Amino acid sequence: xxxxxxxxxxxxxxxxxxxxxxNVPLDGKFEITDTTRIDATIPTITKILEDGGSxxxxxxxxxxxxxxxxxxxxxxLITYLEKxxxxxxxxxxxxxxxxxxxxSAHLKPGQILLxxxxxxxxxxxxxxxxxxxKLSKLGDIYVNDAFGTAHRAHASTxxxxxxxxxxxxxxxxxxxxxxxxxxxxxxTQRPFTAILGGAKVSGKIQIIQHLMDKVDNLIIGGGMMFTxxxxxGGKVGSSLVEEDFVELAKKTIxxxxxxxxxxxxxxxxxxxxxxxxxxNRQYTAAGEIPDGWMGLDIGKETMISFSEVIxxxxxxxxxxxxxxxxxxxxxxxxxxxxxxxxxxxxxxxxSLVGGGDSVAAINKYELEEQVSYVSTGGGAMLExxxxxxxxxxxxxxx
Length: 398
Ligand code: AMP
Fold this sequence. Notes:
The structure is a single chain. With about 400 residues, the protein is α/β, with parallel strands linked by helices. It has two domains: about 5-175, Rossmann fold, CATH 3.40.50.1260; about 190-365, Phosphoglycerate kinase, N-terminal domain (Rossmann fold). About 35% of the residues lie in helices and about 15% in strands. The chain contains 15 helices and 17 strands. The strands form four sheets. A six-stranded parallel sheet has the order 3-4-2-1-5-6, sandwiched between helices. It starts with 14 loop residues before the first strand and ends with a helix. Bound molecules: adenosine monophosphate. The site of adenosine monophosphate has 16 residues, from strand 14.
C-alpha cells in the first residue's frame, strides 16, 4: 500500500488543516502534565511551516458533555505551543465560528492558528457532514496526524476527508504508526513472534485470532494465561479465569497446532495468597496452583524459555504485560520480557510495542528508545491489530 504523506507535497503558500490528537492531561492550574502528544506532532508542523505554509490545528480535549467548558478549552495549550514553535499562536474560540473563518482566511505563511475544542460541538462525534464541511473551508489541504482517534468515524477524523478529494494526506505521526504496523503484519521478517499479555482473554481474543494466520510464535502471558492453563486441565487456584472463554482457549490451542504455530504458555508462575503487593509469595508450576492462591506473574523457567524464542525472532509484536507489573513484587516477568525485546531489537529484530499497558511498561523501564517503535494510539492500535479497518486511515486512502 502506498501512503499519501506530507513528504510528497510542497506546502508553500498553502493553509494546512491538521487534525492532531492534543487530548493531553491538564492539572488543576490548566498546565499540561504530559506533552508527549503535542511533541509527537512537531515534525509534521515544522515541515509544513518550513515549506512556507501555514497551519490550522484542530483537536478534541477531554469529554465535554454539552458545549464549551473552561477545563476542556484548548486555549490552555497556547503557551506551550508558542514556546515550542517560537512564534505567536492565534486562537479561534469557536472552531467553526466567525473568528475561525476570519483568522484562517488571513493566515500568512509561517503562522499557526489553533481552533477551540472540536467536541464542544456534538456534531464532531456524530460525524456530521455539514459540520465537517464548515471545518473543511478553513484550509486548503487536509492532514490527518491523529492516530489516537483513527478508529473513530468523527467529522474531523474521517468525514472531512471527502471535501479534499485530491489534497488529503497523513502527517508523520500517522505515517509512522501505519509503517510500523506494516513492518510487522505485511513486510514481515521471519520468525515473527507475538507476545500477548494483559488481564483478560476476552479483550485480546480478536487479536489472537487475527494474528493466528500471521505469526510463527505466539507467546501468552499475563492474567489471560490462566484461562489457557485451565483449558489444558491445569489447577489455577483463584487466579483470574474467564470461564466463558475456556472452550475458546481450547480451540485456540488446537488451531495453533493445526496451523503449525508454536504456542507458548507459561510453565511456572509467581503466586500470591492475595491480590496485594505485600501478600505472601511462592513459585510453582503454572498448572499446580493451590486453592487460595493466585498467579500474578510468570515464573523464572517461563522467562527463560520465552527469552529464547524472542531472541531468535526477526519481528516482534508486544501487547500486554506478563503480570501485575504495577506491583513491584509481581513485575519481574514484565521487566525481563521488556529487556529481552530490547536485546532482540539490538540483535536486528523489528519490534513494535503497542496498545495499552505494555507501552506503560516499556516507558517504566526506560526502554522506549531501545525498541523499534512504541505506538501512541491505545484503542486505535488494538483495533488495527484485530484486523479492523480504521475510518481515519480509510478516509485518506479512499
Ligand atoms: P490489558 O489492559 O488487558 O493489557 O491488561 C493490563 C492489566 O493486566 C494490568 O493492569 C495488569 O496488572 C493486569 N494483569 C497482568 N497479569 C495479571 C494477572 N496474572 N492477574 C491479574 N491481573 C493481571
